[in-house]
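Homework help board

Subject: predicted structure for assignment chain

Our instructor gave us this sequence and asked us to write out the predicted structure in C-alpha coordinate form, then describe one feature. I got the C-alpha coordinates but I'm not sure how to describe them. Can anyone check?
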Amino acid sequence: MAPRHCDVLVIGAGAAGLMCALTAGQRGRAVQVVDHANRAGKKILMSGGGRCNFTNTGTSAGNFLSANPHFCKSALARYTPADFIDMVERHRIAWHEKELGQLFCDESSKQIVRMLLEECQQAGAQVRTGCTVESVERGTDGFRVRTSQGLFQSASLVVASGGLSIPSMGASGFGYELARQFGHALLPTRAGLVPLTLSGKHQERFADLSGVALPVEAHCNGQHFRNFMLLTHRGISGPAILQISSYWQPGDDLRLDLLPGRDAADWLQRMKRERGASALRTVLADVLPKRLAQRLCEHWLPDRALRQLDEPALAQAAALLSRFPLVASGTEGYRTAEVTLGGVDTAQVSSSTLESRRVPGLYFVGEVLDVTGWLGGYNFQWAWASGHAAGGVA
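My C-alpha coordinate output:
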Protein backbone atom coordinates (compact mmCIF):
# COMPACT_ATOMS: atom_id res chain seq x y z
CA MET A 1 0.00 0.00 0.00
CA ALA A 2 1.35 3.44 -0.94
CA PRO A 3 2.13 5.66 2.07
CA ARG A 4 0.27 8.88 2.81
CA HIS A 5 2.71 11.76 2.43
CA CYS A 6 2.98 14.70 4.80
CA ASP A 7 5.58 17.28 5.73
CA VAL A 8 5.32 16.78 9.50
CA LEU A 9 4.09 13.76 11.45
CA VAL A 10 3.47 14.40 15.15
CA ILE A 11 3.24 11.41 17.48
CA GLY A 12 1.00 12.41 20.39
CA ALA A 13 -2.15 14.56 20.48
CA GLY A 14 -1.48 16.09 23.88
CA ALA A 15 -0.62 19.68 24.77
CA ALA A 16 2.83 19.81 23.13
CA GLY A 17 1.83 17.76 20.07
CA LEU A 18 -1.27 19.82 19.26
CA MET A 19 0.61 23.11 19.73
CA CYS A 20 3.38 21.87 17.44
CA ALA A 21 0.84 20.73 14.83
CA LEU A 22 -1.13 23.97 14.70
CA THR A 23 2.08 26.04 14.56
CA ALA A 24 3.53 23.98 11.71
CA GLY A 25 0.17 24.01 9.91
CA GLN A 26 0.03 27.80 10.11
CA ARG A 27 3.33 27.85 8.17
CA GLY A 28 1.63 25.95 5.34
CA ARG A 29 3.12 22.57 6.27
CA ALA A 30 1.04 19.45 5.66
CA VAL A 31 0.66 17.99 9.17
CA GLN A 32 -0.64 14.68 10.50
CA VAL A 33 -1.04 14.00 14.24
CA VAL A 34 -1.47 10.42 15.44
CA ASP A 35 -2.36 9.24 18.95
CA HIS A 36 -3.19 5.77 20.24
CA ALA A 37 -5.76 7.16 22.72
CA ASN A 38 -9.43 7.35 21.78
CA ARG A 39 -9.50 11.15 22.09
CA ALA A 40 -7.09 14.06 21.94
CA GLY A 41 -5.79 15.90 24.98
CA LYS A 42 -6.72 13.38 27.66
CA LYS A 43 -4.34 14.79 30.28
CA ILE A 44 -5.51 18.31 29.46
CA LEU A 45 -9.10 17.22 30.12
CA MET A 46 -8.35 15.84 33.59
CA SER A 47 -5.97 18.60 34.68
CA GLY A 48 -6.76 21.21 37.28
CA GLY A 49 -9.77 19.30 38.55
CA GLY A 50 -11.32 19.50 35.08
CA ARG A 51 -10.63 23.22 34.69
CA CYS A 52 -7.08 23.01 33.29
CA ASN A 53 -4.39 25.07 34.97
CA PHE A 54 -3.22 26.07 31.50
CA THR A 55 -0.28 28.32 32.36
CA ASN A 56 1.47 30.28 35.08
CA THR A 57 2.14 34.00 34.65
CA GLY A 58 5.37 33.71 36.66
CA THR A 59 6.99 31.08 34.44
CA SER A 60 10.78 31.18 34.31
CA ALA A 61 13.56 28.64 33.83
CA GLY A 62 13.88 28.49 37.62
CA ASN A 63 10.55 26.65 37.81
CA PHE A 64 11.91 23.58 36.01
CA LEU A 65 14.09 20.58 36.86
CA SER A 66 16.54 19.34 34.24
CA ALA A 67 20.11 18.06 34.07
CA ASN A 68 20.66 21.20 31.95
CA PRO A 69 18.72 23.99 33.72
CA HIS A 70 19.42 26.41 30.82
CA PHE A 71 17.87 24.22 28.12
CA CYS A 72 14.29 25.46 28.53
CA LYS A 73 15.17 29.18 28.42
CA SER A 74 15.09 29.70 24.64
CA ALA A 75 11.67 28.17 23.99
CA LEU A 76 10.10 29.76 27.08
CA ALA A 77 11.38 33.20 26.07
CA ARG A 78 9.89 32.92 22.57
CA TYR A 79 6.43 31.69 23.57
CA THR A 80 5.27 33.23 26.83
CA PRO A 81 2.20 32.83 29.05
CA ALA A 82 0.90 36.07 27.49
CA ASP A 83 1.04 34.46 24.03
CA PHE A 84 -1.10 31.53 25.17
CA ILE A 85 -3.51 33.85 27.00
CA ASP A 86 -3.97 35.73 23.70
CA MET A 87 -5.11 32.51 22.04
CA VAL A 88 -7.42 31.67 24.96
CA GLU A 89 -9.03 35.12 24.79
CA ARG A 90 -9.35 34.97 21.01
CA HIS A 91 -11.48 31.87 21.54
CA ARG A 92 -13.51 33.73 24.19
CA ILE A 93 -12.59 31.28 26.95
CA ALA A 94 -13.17 32.87 30.37
CA TRP A 95 -10.35 32.34 32.87
CA HIS A 96 -9.24 33.36 36.35
CA GLU A 97 -6.10 33.42 38.46
CA LYS A 98 -6.38 31.08 41.43
CA GLU A 99 -3.14 31.70 43.36
CA LEU A 100 0.57 32.14 42.73
CA GLY A 101 0.08 33.03 39.03
CA GLN A 102 -1.93 29.87 38.28
CA LEU A 103 -4.50 30.43 35.52
CA PHE A 104 -7.58 28.19 35.14
CA CYS A 105 -10.60 28.05 32.84
CA ASP A 106 -13.76 29.40 34.51
CA GLU A 107 -15.76 26.55 33.01
CA SER A 108 -14.01 23.46 31.65
CA SER A 109 -10.71 22.08 30.38
CA LYS A 110 -12.73 20.82 27.38
CA GLN A 111 -12.56 24.40 26.09
CA ILE A 112 -8.76 24.25 25.85
CA VAL A 113 -8.83 20.96 23.92
CA ARG A 114 -11.57 22.31 21.63
CA MET A 115 -9.51 25.48 21.03
CA LEU A 116 -6.39 23.51 20.09
CA LEU A 117 -8.34 21.20 17.76
CA GLU A 118 -10.06 24.18 16.10
CA GLU A 119 -6.66 25.84 15.58
CA CYS A 120 -5.34 22.61 14.07
CA GLN A 121 -8.35 22.37 11.76
CA GLN A 122 -7.99 25.99 10.63
CA ALA A 123 -4.30 25.35 9.93
CA GLY A 124 -5.10 22.18 7.98
CA ALA A 125 -3.44 19.83 10.49
CA GLN A 126 -5.21 16.47 10.64
CA VAL A 127 -5.58 14.71 14.00
CA ARG A 128 -6.10 10.94 14.11
CA THR A 129 -7.00 9.23 17.40
CA GLY A 130 -7.12 5.48 17.97
CA CYS A 131 -4.03 5.31 15.75
CA THR A 132 -1.21 3.20 17.19
CA VAL A 133 2.34 3.55 15.87
CA GLU A 134 3.73 0.11 15.03
CA SER A 135 7.17 0.98 13.65
CA VAL A 136 9.31 3.95 12.62
CA GLU A 137 12.10 3.80 10.03
CA ARG A 138 14.29 6.52 8.59
CA GLY A 139 15.39 6.53 4.99
CA THR A 140 16.98 9.01 2.60
CA ASP A 141 13.59 10.67 2.01
CA GLY A 142 12.53 11.07 5.64
CA PHE A 143 10.57 8.87 8.02
CA ARG A 144 8.27 5.93 7.28
CA VAL A 145 5.82 5.42 10.11
CA ARG A 146 3.65 2.31 10.10
CA THR A 147 0.43 2.69 12.11
CA SER A 148 -2.81 0.83 12.74
CA GLN A 149 -4.37 3.28 10.24
CA GLY A 150 -1.82 2.79 7.49
CA LEU A 151 1.64 3.90 6.41
CA PHE A 152 2.81 7.53 6.56
CA GLN A 153 5.82 9.15 4.92
CA SER A 154 7.02 12.43 6.41
CA ALA A 155 10.00 14.75 6.10
CA SER A 156 9.89 15.66 9.81
CA LEU A 157 8.92 13.53 12.80
CA VAL A 158 7.94 15.10 16.14
CA VAL A 159 7.87 12.95 19.25
CA ALA A 160 5.27 14.42 21.63
CA SER A 161 4.20 11.22 23.33
CA GLY A 162 4.65 12.35 26.94
CA GLY A 163 6.08 10.45 29.89
CA LEU A 164 5.06 7.55 32.10
CA SER A 165 2.72 9.36 34.48
CA ILE A 166 -0.93 8.28 34.79
CA PRO A 167 -0.87 5.10 32.67
CA SER A 168 -4.68 4.93 32.96
CA MET A 169 -4.69 7.93 30.59
CA GLY A 170 -2.68 5.94 28.05
CA ALA A 171 0.83 7.01 29.11
CA SER A 172 3.60 4.70 27.95
CA GLY A 173 7.35 4.65 27.43
CA PHE A 174 6.95 4.75 23.64
CA GLY A 175 8.75 8.08 23.21
CA TYR A 176 11.72 6.83 25.19
CA GLU A 177 11.93 3.66 23.08
CA LEU A 178 11.88 5.74 19.91
CA ALA A 179 14.60 8.05 21.24
CA ARG A 180 16.73 5.03 22.09
CA GLN A 181 16.12 3.57 18.61
CA PHE A 182 17.69 6.69 17.11
CA GLY A 183 20.68 6.66 19.45
CA HIS A 184 19.53 9.20 22.02
CA ALA A 185 20.63 8.88 25.64
CA LEU A 186 17.96 8.78 28.33
CA LEU A 187 18.25 10.05 31.87
CA PRO A 188 16.66 7.88 34.60
CA THR A 189 12.93 8.46 34.94
CA ARG A 190 10.88 8.64 38.12
CA ALA A 191 7.51 9.93 39.27
CA GLY A 192 7.27 13.67 39.98
CA LEU A 193 4.57 15.86 41.57
CA VAL A 194 3.40 12.76 43.41
CA PRO A 195 2.07 11.93 46.90
CA LEU A 196 4.59 10.41 49.32
CA THR A 197 4.01 7.24 51.29
CA LEU A 198 4.87 6.63 54.93
CA SER A 199 5.71 3.39 56.71
CA GLY A 200 6.52 2.23 60.21
CA LYS A 201 5.81 4.56 63.13
CA HIS A 202 4.98 7.61 61.04
CA GLN A 203 2.37 5.67 59.07
CA GLU A 204 0.90 4.09 62.23
CA ARG A 205 0.67 7.44 64.01
CA PHE A 206 -0.81 9.44 61.14
CA ALA A 207 -2.99 6.93 59.22
CA ASP A 208 -6.19 7.62 61.17
CA LEU A 209 -5.74 11.38 60.62
CA SER A 210 -6.49 10.88 56.91
CA GLY A 211 -8.25 13.95 55.54
CA VAL A 212 -6.58 16.42 57.90
CA ALA A 213 -5.05 19.35 55.98
CA LEU A 214 -2.84 22.22 57.12
CA PRO A 215 -0.43 24.81 55.69
CA VAL A 216 3.22 23.74 55.95
CA GLU A 217 6.57 24.64 54.46
CA ALA A 218 8.27 21.51 53.12
CA HIS A 219 12.10 21.49 52.93
CA CYS A 220 14.33 19.02 51.06
CA ASN A 221 17.71 19.25 49.31
CA GLY A 222 17.87 23.04 49.49
CA GLN A 223 14.36 23.58 48.09
CA HIS A 224 11.28 24.64 50.03
CA PHE A 225 7.60 25.12 49.19
CA ARG A 226 4.90 26.67 51.35
CA ASN A 227 1.36 25.45 50.72
CA PHE A 228 -1.12 22.91 52.07
CA MET A 229 -0.33 19.35 53.13
CA LEU A 230 -2.98 16.64 53.27
CA LEU A 231 -2.64 13.54 55.43
CA THR A 232 -3.83 10.39 53.62
CA HIS A 233 -4.36 6.72 54.54
CA ARG A 234 -1.00 5.84 53.01
CA GLY A 235 1.02 9.00 53.59
CA ILE A 236 0.98 12.67 52.68
CA SER A 237 -0.19 14.72 49.71
CA GLY A 238 -1.33 18.27 48.93
CA PRO A 239 0.44 20.98 46.90
CA ALA A 240 3.42 21.46 49.26
CA ILE A 241 4.17 17.72 49.21
CA LEU A 242 3.63 17.29 45.45
CA GLN A 243 6.08 20.14 44.86
CA ILE A 244 8.80 18.83 47.17
CA SER A 245 8.37 15.26 45.87
CA SER A 246 10.21 16.22 42.67
CA TYR A 247 13.29 17.07 44.76
CA TRP A 248 13.03 14.12 47.18
CA GLN A 249 14.31 10.57 46.76
CA PRO A 250 14.23 7.68 49.27
CA GLY A 251 16.68 8.31 52.09
CA ASP A 252 16.70 12.09 51.65
CA ASP A 253 16.06 14.32 54.67
CA LEU A 254 12.56 15.81 54.51
CA ARG A 255 11.53 18.49 57.01
CA LEU A 256 8.22 20.23 57.58
CA ASP A 257 7.70 23.63 59.17
CA LEU A 258 4.32 23.02 60.80
CA LEU A 259 3.97 26.72 61.73
CA PRO A 260 5.02 28.46 58.49
CA GLY A 261 5.43 32.21 58.76
CA ARG A 262 5.64 31.99 62.54
CA ASP A 263 8.75 31.89 64.74
CA ALA A 264 7.95 28.78 66.78
CA ALA A 265 10.37 29.66 69.61
CA ASP A 266 9.04 33.22 70.04
CA TRP A 267 5.45 32.01 69.84
CA LEU A 268 5.94 29.30 72.49
CA GLN A 269 7.66 31.80 74.82
CA ARG A 270 4.73 34.19 74.41
CA MET A 271 2.19 31.41 74.99
CA LYS A 272 4.05 30.39 78.17
CA ARG A 273 3.85 33.98 79.46
CA GLU A 274 0.21 34.52 78.49
CA ARG A 275 -1.27 31.04 78.94
CA GLY A 276 1.12 29.19 81.26
CA ALA A 277 -1.63 27.06 82.82
CA SER A 278 -2.75 25.70 79.42
CA ALA A 279 -1.47 22.38 78.12
CA LEU A 280 0.80 22.51 75.07
CA ARG A 281 -1.76 20.49 73.09
CA THR A 282 -4.41 23.12 73.88
CA VAL A 283 -2.46 26.10 72.56
CA LEU A 284 -1.24 24.07 69.56
CA ALA A 285 -4.88 23.30 68.70
CA ASP A 286 -5.36 27.06 68.12
CA VAL A 287 -2.84 27.04 65.26
CA LEU A 288 -2.93 23.41 64.06
CA PRO A 289 -5.80 20.98 63.40
CA LYS A 290 -6.88 19.74 66.85
CA ARG A 291 -6.40 16.03 66.10
CA LEU A 292 -2.88 16.64 64.79
CA ALA A 293 -1.99 18.77 67.83
CA GLN A 294 -3.12 15.93 70.08
CA ARG A 295 -1.18 13.33 68.11
CA LEU A 296 2.02 15.40 68.20
CA CYS A 297 1.73 15.68 71.97
CA GLU A 298 1.04 11.95 72.33
CA HIS A 299 4.22 10.92 70.53
CA TRP A 300 6.69 13.76 69.92
CA LEU A 301 6.01 16.74 72.18
CA PRO A 302 5.63 17.05 75.98
CA ASP A 303 1.95 16.73 76.98
CA ARG A 304 2.18 19.14 79.90
CA ALA A 305 1.22 22.66 80.95
CA LEU A 306 3.43 25.31 79.34
CA ARG A 307 4.62 26.64 82.73
CA GLN A 308 6.05 23.19 83.45
CA LEU A 309 8.33 23.38 80.39
CA ASP A 310 11.80 24.76 81.04
CA GLU A 311 13.86 26.60 78.41
CA PRO A 312 15.52 23.49 76.91
CA ALA A 313 12.12 21.74 76.65
CA LEU A 314 10.56 24.79 74.94
CA ALA A 315 13.51 25.09 72.56
CA GLN A 316 13.23 21.39 71.71
CA ALA A 317 9.49 21.73 71.04
CA ALA A 318 10.08 24.78 68.85
CA ALA A 319 12.76 22.94 66.86
CA LEU A 320 10.43 20.02 66.27
CA LEU A 321 7.54 22.24 65.15
CA SER A 322 9.69 24.24 62.74
CA ARG A 323 11.79 21.33 61.39
CA PHE A 324 9.59 18.26 61.85
CA PRO A 325 11.50 15.26 60.45
CA LEU A 326 9.12 13.21 58.31
CA VAL A 327 10.50 9.87 57.15
CA ALA A 328 8.84 9.10 53.82
CA SER A 329 9.31 5.57 52.48
CA GLY A 330 8.45 6.12 48.82
CA THR A 331 5.94 7.65 46.40
CA GLU A 332 2.57 6.60 45.04
CA GLY A 333 4.38 6.10 41.71
CA TYR A 334 3.35 6.85 38.14
CA ARG A 335 -0.25 5.84 38.86
CA THR A 336 -0.96 9.21 40.48
CA ALA A 337 2.12 11.25 39.46
CA GLU A 338 1.35 14.38 37.47
CA VAL A 339 4.66 14.31 35.61
CA THR A 340 7.71 12.17 34.80
CA LEU A 341 11.14 13.39 35.84
CA GLY A 342 14.08 12.57 33.56
CA GLY A 343 13.67 11.37 29.98
CA VAL A 344 15.41 12.23 26.72
CA ASP A 345 18.76 13.85 27.46
CA THR A 346 18.66 17.48 26.30
CA ALA A 347 22.42 17.43 25.53
CA GLN A 348 21.58 15.86 22.14
CA VAL A 349 18.67 18.21 21.32
CA SER A 350 18.77 21.82 20.08
CA SER A 351 17.34 24.19 22.69
CA SER A 352 16.12 26.63 20.03
CA THR A 353 14.46 24.22 17.57
CA LEU A 354 14.00 21.05 19.69
CA GLU A 355 15.55 19.11 16.78
CA SER A 356 17.73 16.09 17.42
CA ARG A 357 21.45 16.77 17.01
CA ARG A 358 21.84 13.15 15.95
CA VAL A 359 19.02 12.72 13.42
CA PRO A 360 18.01 15.65 11.17
CA GLY A 361 14.23 16.05 10.98
CA LEU A 362 13.57 14.35 14.33
CA TYR A 363 12.15 16.54 17.13
CA PHE A 364 11.28 16.00 20.81
CA VAL A 365 8.78 18.24 22.63
CA GLY A 366 7.00 18.34 25.98
CA GLU A 367 7.27 15.85 28.80
CA VAL A 368 9.30 13.23 26.89
CA LEU A 369 12.33 15.50 27.37
CA ASP A 370 14.30 15.88 30.59
CA VAL A 371 12.46 19.10 31.49
CA THR A 372 9.96 18.97 34.35
CA GLY A 373 8.05 21.91 35.77
CA TRP A 374 6.71 22.69 39.22
CA LEU A 375 3.04 22.25 40.07
CA GLY A 376 0.87 25.14 38.94
CA GLY A 377 0.68 25.41 35.14
CA TYR A 378 4.42 25.32 34.41
CA ASN A 379 4.36 21.97 32.61
CA PHE A 380 1.62 23.18 30.29
CA GLN A 381 3.64 26.32 29.51
CA TRP A 382 6.62 24.11 28.65
CA ALA A 383 4.35 22.05 26.38
CA TRP A 384 3.10 25.18 24.57
CA ALA A 385 6.58 26.72 24.32
CA SER A 386 8.43 23.58 23.17
CA GLY A 387 5.63 22.64 20.75
CA HIS A 388 5.65 26.14 19.29
CA ALA A 389 9.47 26.13 18.94
CA ALA A 390 9.47 22.84 17.00
CA GLY A 391 6.37 23.73 15.01
CA GLY A 392 8.07 26.90 13.83
CA VAL A 393 10.78 24.95 12.00
CA ALA A 394 9.68 21.33 11.48
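Reply (TA_rk): Your C-alpha coordinates look well-formed. For the description, you could write something like this. Residues 270 and 276 are 9 Å apart (CA to CA). That's the kind of observation they're looking for.
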